Amino acid sequence: MDPKNLKKIIQNEFLPDSSGHDIYHLERVCGLALKIQEKEGGDREVIAYASFLHDVHRIMGGKIKKFCSPKDSLPKIKIILEKVKAPKEKIEKILHCIEFHEEYGFSKKGKTAQDIETLILQDADNLDAIGAIGIARAFMFGGAYNIPMYLPTCPFRKKYFNEAKFDISEIHHFYSKLLRLKNDLHTKTGKKLAKKRHAFMKKYLEEFFKEWNEKDN
């Protein structure tokens, strides 16, 4: 796989993104996924292609301002894979990774994928959702979809997370999803990388609430 060739084809659609799912997110996820693959194994080419194309559904949804599932994007992704001459014998595997990359143990459906390539993509994508960059991306997403920063009168109780339904505020999103990701990763490498990012996120929230409640002096 030549990432530069694939990037040329998709970057025009991803560069204008303002929801935190831009071309740089794809590059970071690909880098993280390949770093994990070096330690954990799996088909490196499948992981690289899937990493670069996993968020096509986000661009589709952004255009219509409505949630699109990863499965909705598969026909379009297949055309892209054929255009860049991806190995024919690996296309179905790449599509499988993308279709199941947004599974969470704390969703009502739970997790079904067990292949290492999909699990690595899940871990890499979730790592980019936490830590300093994860915080920035969360508020980018809120701005893009007019989600409030914080609604202090609303409780944080949410047993199951549903990717198709926006949280009532971005701070609520930390508790419904982002703070749960550290314990939802699969690979040893991913779990190790998540510790520092998770700790930073918790520290940020502590400071956020101090400032919100004017107790930071």
Could you please describe the fold and organization of this structure?
The chain has one domain: Hypothetical protein af1432. Helix content is 58%, strand content 0%. The protein contains ten helices and no strands. Helix 3 crosses helix 7 (116-127) and helix 5 (74-83) runs antiparallel to helix 6. The N and C termini lie far apart (53 Å). The mean pLDDT is 95.
Would you spell out the secondary-structure blueprint of this structure?
Blueprint: H1 3-14, H2 23-40, H3 44-53, H4 56-64, H5 74-83, H6 91-99, H7 116-127, H8 131-144, H9 170-176, H10 188-212
Précis, in short:
By secondary structure, this protein is mainly alpha-helical. It has ten helices and no strands. It starts with a helix and ends in a 5-residue tail after the last helix.
Question: Which features would summarize this protein structure in a list?
Answer:
217 residues, mainly alpha
Task: Return the CATH architecture.
Answer: Orthogonal Bundle
SSE string: HHHHHHHHHH
Name of the CATH class: Mainly Alpha
**Helical region count?**
10
**Could you estimate the helical fraction of the residues in percent?**
55-70%
Work out the number of β strands.
Answer: 0
What separation lies between the terminal Cα atoms? Answer: 53 Å
User: What is the mean predicted local confidence, pLDDT?
Assistant: 95
